[in-house]
Design a protein that fits this description.
Pfam families: Sugar_tr. There is one protein chain. By secondary structure, the chain is mostly helical. Helix content is 67%, strand content 1%. The protein contains 22 helices and two strands. It has helices spanning 25-33, 39-49, 51-60, 62-65, 109-112, 120-123, 125-140, 142-146, 150-169, 175-189, 192-202, 209-233, 239-260, 265-270, 274-287, 295-311, 326-332, 335-360, 369-393, 396-416, 422-450, 456-466, and strands spanning 71-73, 99-101. It has a two-stranded antiparallel ribbon. The longest helix is centred in the C-terminal third of the chain and has 29 residues, at 422-450.
Length: 469
């Protein structure tokens, strides 16, 4: 077996399997059951990818729940209210009773807890706490998917924990409890995106991985786009209602994942669970029986896998190794893994700042918050299409460099535009966000291809966690 430091981690699906002998667990699986691209199995992988919709809702819900509502001057006794003018930048300097919120105070945490005059640090504390939780969770939880729990159980744990934290957030009595619960929410959802993408792509063959990845990006867009629709429908209701209606569908989806989704056969084999892996592959072969997949094929696969695993483990990781931090040791012992991880973390840090910073501060552009957020969500649709084209045909590294540079230039141009040019600033923001979304999608797929099964979730989670800084 060739050195794992030099052999490509993912080979091209265009290679002729008859001419290329199987050199990895991936190759052996596809040799006996095909590219696992049957329609039913492909739909199951896309169903797993739909978890990204709930992930997007968790990330961007604060755009509406934590927004400062519009306010207006009110008439006082005698009909003279010269102390209040609509041109005032903030109601903080105005006497009590001379102004009021346009909507009920319960529609936002800012108005319900009177945070408009508490300073930007306190008003932004819940959002900062959420991303701090994402950062901590990205370092602590991602190893679970590669070690003791696996992809499916870690995804279920994240979805349920995230939902329970969301329900408790809806009951928060003050901003301090709210910020603490947002930290817990961020900690819990930190592995949703990585587990979803890794599991869904490992449930299909190499030929279909790009398709499933792009399907996950579209699911994220659906979740993002649902937020302004939900917020507009509940614009007169309490901000707590948004959390409730976001959590209930997620719990229902988690129950379906438990019943319908499979664990990654690749992870099962790498961790030494050969019997479970064969059973998972048997289910896949049954779903996609058009290629003549038989019990004999699976028996031959079992024998070959047993010989392969006994000689070595895929990517140099011990299949009998256990413990939460076993995958970190695997990466630490390989200089090439550390170099790749450092490079992907630096790229993810820069792209992540723009990707999450733009939608969260879109209200400062002065345009309609619901429409602005919807425009940002819709920008992800052509971004996903462009990502699919670039992933299929272009160089990953060059694509990321060009897209990131374009996003940076457009962001600077947007900041340099005058305040009164709302349309031009919004156009610049959308173009910058479009470029950033595409770069973000390409980096995600690129990072999956850079690391082997035994450490894939941990490595992807490291840069995903660092991007919250």
């Amino acid at each position: 077996m060739a050195d794992t430091a030099t052999v490509p981690l993912l080979t091209s699906h265009k290679a002729d399997p008859a001419k290329v002998p199987p050199t990895s667990i991936d190759d052996m699986i596809e040799k006996y059951i095909g590219d696992t691209g049957g329609a039913v199995q492909l739909l199951k992988a896309v169903f797993v990818a739909f978890a990204w919709a709930f992930d997007a809702q968790q990330v961007f819900i604060s755009v509406f729940t934590d927004a400062e509502p519009q306010w207006h001057c009110v008439d006082v006794a005698g009909g003279n209210n010269s102390s209040c003018t609509p041109a005032a930048a903030s109601p903080c300097a105005l006497p009590p009773g001379t102004w009021a919120w346009d909507r009920p105070a319960k529609t936002s945490v800012v108005s319900e807890w009177a945070l408009q005059c508490a300073g930007p640090a306190l008003a932004s504390l819940p959002a900062s706490s959420f991303f701090a939780g994402c950062l901590v969770g990205g370092f602590v939880l991602t190893t679970l998917a590669d070690s003791v729990l696996g992809r499916k159980k870690t995804l279920l744990l994240s979805l349920v924990s995230m939902s329970v934290a969301g329900l408790l957030t809806a009951l928060a009595p003050n901003v301090w409890a709210y910020a603490a619960l947002r930290f817990v929410s961020g900690f819990a959802r930190s592995t949703v995106g990585t587990c979803t993408l890794v599991l869904s792509t490992e449930l299909v063959g190499k030929r279909w991985r790009h398709t499933v990845s792009v399907a996950a990006f579209f699911c994220y867009t659906i979740g993002f786009l649902s937020l302004p629709l939900l917020a507009y429908a509940l614009r007169e209701d309490s901000w707590r209602s948004m959390y409730f209606w976001m959590v209930v569908p997620c719990l229902f989806y988690a129950a379906l994942i438990h019943l319908l989704a499979q664990e990654s056969p690749r992870w099962l084999l790498v961790r030494g669970h050969k019997r479970d892996a064969i059973e998972s592959l048997r289910q896949i072969a049954t779903l996609d029986d058009s290629g003549g997949h038989t019990t004999t094929n699976l028996s031959m696969l079992e024998l070959e896998l047993e010989a392969c695993v006994s000689m070595h483990n895929e990517d140099g990781a011990s299949s009998s190794g256990s413990g939460v931090f076993a995958t970190l040791q695997v990466m630490w012992e390989r200089p090439w893994a550390i170099r790749r991880l450092a490079a992907i973390m630096v790229a993810g840090f820069g792209v992540g700042m723009v990707y999450f910073g733009m939608p969260l501060t879109v209200g400062s552009l002065g345009s309609n918050l619901y429409l602005s957020t919807a425009y940002n969500a819709l920008a992800e649709v052509p971004s996903s299409i462009l990502s699919w084209l670039l992933i299929a045909r272009a160089n990953r590294r060059t694509s990321v460099v060009v897209l990131a540079a374009s996003a940076g230039v457009l962001s600077l141009a947007c900041a340099a535009m005058p305040q009164r040019a709302e349309a031009a600033r919004m156009a610049g923001e959308l173009l910058s966000f479009f470029a950033t979304c595409t770069a973000y999608d390409v980096i995600l797929v690129y990072s999956i291809e850079l690391f082997p099964t035994s450490v894939r979730n941990s490595a992807v989670g490291r840069w995903c966690g660092r991007r919250w800084c």
